[in-house]
């Protein structure tokens, strides 16, 4: 069972002020390839899994943004760590 929910919003500083959407799309493709459960929302993406899996994934995303050409990247993250289990469904089921 997953013990964490982590929401991430990336803000890459592009070389010449180019559109950041291709960077965001690339970041989401990295999350998708991880095999972890996730949901894309308008301002952030929430990942469900174990914190020990998610934190290295965030590092991988940041590295990928720089490798893609960003000068730097700010990653705003929110973490719910709940050792007895955490899920997006459990937190949002009453709204669905």
The structure class reads alpha+beta
Share of residues in helices? 25-40%
| Total helical elements | 3
CATH architecture: 2-Layer Sandwich
Total E-strand runs:
4
Oligomer: single chain
Proportion of β residues? 25-35%
Q: Could you give the order of the helices and strands? A: EHEEHEH
Q: What's the pLDDT, averaged over the residues?
A: 96
Largest sheet features: 4 strands, antiparallel
CATH class reads Alpha Beta
Distance between the termini: 22 Å
What gyration radius follows from the Cα positions, in whole Å?
A: 14 Å
Strand order, sheet with most strands: 2-3-1-4
| Domain tally | 1
* CA-based shape: elongated
Low-confidence runs of at least 5 consecutive residues: none
Q: Which fold name is given in CATH as the topology?
A: Alpha-Beta Plaits
Short overview:
The chain has helices spanning 21-33, 51-68, 88-92; strands at residues 4-13, 37-40, 45-49, 72-81. It has 96 residues and is an alpha+beta fold.
Chain-wise SSE layout:
Elements: E1 4-13, H1 21-33, E2 37-40, E3 45-49, H2 51-68, E4 72-81, H3 88-92
Antiparallel strand pairs: 1-3, 1-4, 2-3
Helix pairs in contact: 1-2
């Amino acid at each position: 069972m997953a013990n964490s929910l982590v929401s991430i919003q990336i803000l890459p500083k592009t070389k010449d002020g180019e559109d950041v959407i291709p960077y965001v799309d690339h970041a989401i493709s990295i999350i998708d390839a991880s095999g972890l459960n996730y949901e894309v929302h308008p301002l952030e993406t929430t990942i469900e899994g174990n914190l020990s899996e998610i934190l290295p994934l965030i590092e991988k995303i940041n590295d990928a943004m720089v490798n893609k050409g960003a000068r730097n990247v700010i990653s705003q993250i929110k973490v719910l760590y709940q050792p007895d289990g955490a899920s997006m469904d459990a937190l949002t089921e009453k709204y669905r």
